[in-house]
Design brief:
- With 262 residues, the protein is an alpha/beta fold.
- The chain has two domains: 12-125, Cobalt-precorrin-4 Transmethylase, domain 1, CATH 3.40.1010; 128-254, Tetrapyrrole methylase, C-terminal domain (Methyltransferase, Cobalt-precorrin-4 Transmethylase, Domain 2).
- It has helices at residues 28-35, 48-51, 74-86, 105-114, 127-134, 182-191, 221-227, 251-261; strands at 12-17, 39-42, 59-62, 65-66, 69-70, 90-95, 118-122, 145-152, 170-176, 199-204, 212-217, 234-238, 248-249.
- It has a six-stranded mixed beta sheet with strand order 8-9-12-10-11-13, sandwiched between helices. It has a five-stranded parallel beta sheet with strand order 3-2-6-1-7, with helices on both faces.
- Helix 3 packs across helix 4 and helix 6 (182-191) runs antiparallel to helix 7.
- It comes from Sphingomonas aracearum.
Length: 262
């Protein structure tokens, strides 16, 4: 693979996974890419210390996306990247987590290739891997889970999505972007046959300052998110492996609330 610092390798885009937040989780190749950048097109939750790895003269362009509030729609981001690459610039598209896990990296690669331009992808530590490791939560385990699935909790038509078989005994389900729809997610999983007492964890702001790992049972997921005022970014993990983690057990609060209502 040619060096990212090779001056002959101009006019291209490098999709870089910035990991879940902690700059220490960047790969060596990600750091090398940032140092070669003329332009950094970045997500909104990128740690400033990561952006500082790019040359001081490099232009930094935020294309922050938050729920229902986008600085630029995806088509405009694609067009922005292509336009800058066509000038001969090295464009680093810096994305939280991994570019190909709910990062729309596939769409950006398609757009760059359709324009006949060069593109490289540097994977990153995904939010699921980084947050789970911090909480000592093994996503697979010989005694508890031999399969793991990733789904998006903000997808259109959530109730129509077929998640059957993704969660349950011997399986782990990781839900990205599910805080706002936590109650609906719990209802959907239980309607699909997942036991109400299946352990579930919410990993909030993983690897960042103020991170929390809290857990309860599936039936309490929605109420717990509301009680604990969980905010984004956060992921939800459903499965027996949750009981092996360091996540703080919030089930007692639910039990007290249920008893008070009885």
């Amino acid at each position: 693979m040619p060096s990212l610092l090779d001056p002959a390798q101009r006019g291209r885009v490098i999709l870089v996974g910035a990991g879940p937040g902690d700059p220490g989780l960047l790969t060596v190749r990600a750091v090398e890419a940032l140092r070669s950048a003329d332009i950094v097109v970045h997500d909104g939750l990128i740690d400033p210390r990561v952006l500082d790895l790019a040359p001081a003269a490099a232009q930094r362009i935020s294309v922050a996306k938050r729920r229902a509030r986008h600085t630029l729609p995806q088509d405009a981001i694609n067009a922005l990247i292509v336009a800058h690459v066509k000038t001969g610039s090295v464009v680093v598209r810096l994305k939280g987590g991994d570019p190909f896990i709910f990062g729309r990296g596939g769409e950006e690669v398609e757009a760059v290739r359709a324009a006949g331009l060069k593109v490289e992808v540097i994977p990153g530590v995904s939010a699921a891997l980084g947050c789970a490791a911090e909480a000592m939560l093994p996503l697979t385990h010989r005694d508890h889970s031999s399969a793991v699935s990733f789904v998006a909790g903000q997808c259109k038509g959530l109730s129509e999505q077929d998640w059957s078989g993704l969660a349950g005994q011997g399986r782990t389900l990781v839900i990205y972007m599910g805080v706002a729809t936590a109650a609906q997610i719990a209802d959907k999983l239980m309607a699909d046959g997942v036991a109400p007492d299946m352990p579930v964890a919410v990993l909030e702001k993983g690897t960042l300052a103020g991170h929390r790992a809290i857990r309860t049972l599936l039936a309490d997921l929605g109420p717990m998110v509301e009680r604990e005022r969980v905010g984004s970014p956060a992921i939800i993990v459903v499965g027996e492996v949750v009981e092996l983690s360091d996540a703080e057990n919030k089930l007692a609060a639910w039990a007290r609330a249920a008893e008070a209502l009885a």
